[in-house]
Amino acid sequence: MPLLIDRQIVNDDSWQLVEEAEALPQQGDLLLPLALYLEQREALAGHDGRIAVRINGDDDLAPVLAAPDRFPMIAIEFPIFRDGRGFSLARILRREGFKGELRAVGAPLRDQLGYMERCGINAFEFGDEVFKDAFLDAFGEISVRYQGSSDDPRPIYLQNY
Question: Is the pTM of this model over 0.70?
Answer without folding.
Answer: yes
